[in-house]
Amino acid sequence: MAIIKVGKEDLKNRDSALNELREYFSGLSASKGREITYSVRTYGCQLNESDSEKLCGMLESMGLTEYEGDKTADVVIFNTCAVRENAEDRLFGNLGIIKSDRKNDKDMIVAVCGCMTMVEKNVDKIRKSFPYVDLVFDPQHIHLFPVYLRDSLRRKKQLVNISADDYIVDDSLVPIARKRKFRALVPIMYGCNNFCTYCIVPYARGRERSREVGEIIEELEILAYQGYKEVMLLGQNVNSYKSSEGDRFPALLKAASAIKGFSRIRFMSSHPKDISDEIIEIMASSSNIETHLHLPLQSGSDRILKLMNRPYDITDYLKTVHYFRKMVPDGSLSTDIIVGFPGETEDDFKRTLDVVSECAFDSAFTFQYSPRPGTKAALMEDQIPHDVVTERFGRLLDLQNNLAYKSNLAKVGKTEEILIEGMSSTAPDILTGRTMSNHLINFTIPDSLKIEGKSADDYEGMLCDVKFTSARPYSVDGEMVKLK
Ligand code: 5AD
Ligand code: SF4
């Protein structure tokens, strides 16, 4: 399928819809005598978070404000994920909960977008069981959300707008309301060509298409000027980034690293088949690229990797890991692992445990295999019984928790620079942040370093040195020794 480049002309229609909606919501606000609010509920990965920031940006340019209470906003958007079944179950549960609010308020708007809308049976279910959902649209068309919203308001009955066109939009033409004042999410490419046999993403997000280097660097320069400290370069498979001029990811990463102002540059995800020594060398030699590599393993068995259509073997994978550990000795390595892929034997699973031990991952996202309709693996024979999957999953978790704890323990006694992310969710007065290697740190501020009049939240986005005092399974505790 051809990739469609959306130009300024194409966005005129979007802008006229934006204007119309601004007027509509301003009238609604006058008649209700209060602000009109929105809430965007995001499931899934950072690319979805990034799409949600665009939805929020467009809603704010319609004059809406983000809802922060515990009731329901006037416009509620569910930005969904289809990677595993449990995210779908959560959406349907939440649509059920919102039903009475929607029925009691004729002006309320409920919309569903994201990867789930690309699975036909989900859209059928919304049509049949949730007719009060006003709008359903696919993730390729985020930039046209105002057009759909306007059309659905005119129509006064459910509007479903799904197509599988592979759009690429200049992101500078879409308003973005960034969630964190210090961290900017910057997609560098969209879609995936890999068709891992378990994965729905290539069906939901279309073929790989990369933004142009100049466009990305311009966005980064503006972000640095605006004071963002951290930037995350995002893509399903960033290492296969390729601009129309043939520029590849190492060149983009170097250009991003040369921009003055960012303390941290992160990128994810990497595919083991595409990560190169060159990228690891750039990480090793740069002072602002995070020393953290996310390298999804999926399975430790070559046989299962073949069935998954993952074109690397464990020997290749370990070579990359050893090179990373050698070149970036203070770095950290994280991974994704699927347990219970069809045909996985006890022997295959033990190989996964062996590889996990050898790599000593600093952290891991572990998943139980979830059959996705339309993927090859869902049709494979020898699906693994649930009790076998949960038993194996438990063993993997025990091993990985132990490795994560050891990785945290190795930090104790050291002092490192932390980018402050805000308050700890469990204890006010305790700040939370991350090291360059992406370790999560909770720490106190001695009275002598407190800035008068500042609340814990105001420290968000600042850099400081923290001395690490003790380790927990998922975090490290410490005390600030210097505020920068
Ligand atoms: N079942 C379980 N886990 C999956 N993932 C992707 N598809 C599935 C599935 N069908 C996991 C992979 C991927 C991560 C984002 O989600 O580990 O790397
Ligand atoms: Fe899914 Fe594989 Fe593409 Fe990752 S690389 S998004 S797991 S198909």
Summarize the structure in words.
There is one protein chain. With 484 residues, this protein is an alpha/beta fold. It has helices spanning 10-32, 46-61, 85-104, 120-129, 145-155, 201-205, 213-226, 249-257, 277-285, 302-307, 314-327, 346-359, 386-409, and strands at 3-6, 37-42, 65-66, 75-80, 109-114, 135-137, 159-161, 166-169, 183-187, 189-190, 209-210, 230-234, 264-268, 292-294, 332-339, 363-368, 415-423, 431-434, 440-444, 463-471, 476-483. It has a six-stranded parallel β-sheet, with helices on both faces. Helix 12 (346-359) links the parallel strand 15 and strand 16 (363-368). It binds 5'-deoxyadenosine and iron/sulfur cluster. 5'-deoxyadenosine (5AD) binds at residues 83-84, 198-199, 296, 298, 336, 338, 367, 369-370, 372.
Judged by helices, strands and strand pairing, the structural class is alpha/beta
What's the number of domains?
Answer: 4
Ligand kinds: 5'-deoxyadenosine, iron/sulfur cluster
CATH architecture of the largest domain: 3-Layer(aba) Sandwich
How would you sum up the global shape? globular
Q: Strand portion, in percent?
A: 15-25%
CATH class descriptor of the largest domain: Alpha Beta
Which helices and strands appear, and what pairs or packs with what?
Blueprint: E1 3-6, H1 10-32, E2 37-42, H2 46-61, E3 65-66, E4 75-80, H3 85-104, E5 109-114, H4 120-129, E6 135-137, H5 145-155, E7 159-161, E8 166-169, E9 183-187, E10 189-190, H6 201-205, E11 209-210, H7 213-226, E12 230-234, H8 249-257, E13 264-268, H9 277-285, E14 292-294, H10 302-307, H11 314-327, E15 332-339, H12 346-359, E16 363-368, H13 386-409, E17 415-423, E18 431-434, E19 440-444, E20 463-471, E21 476-483
5'-deoxyadenosine binds at residues 83-84, 198-199, 296, 298, 336, 338, 367, 369-370, 372.
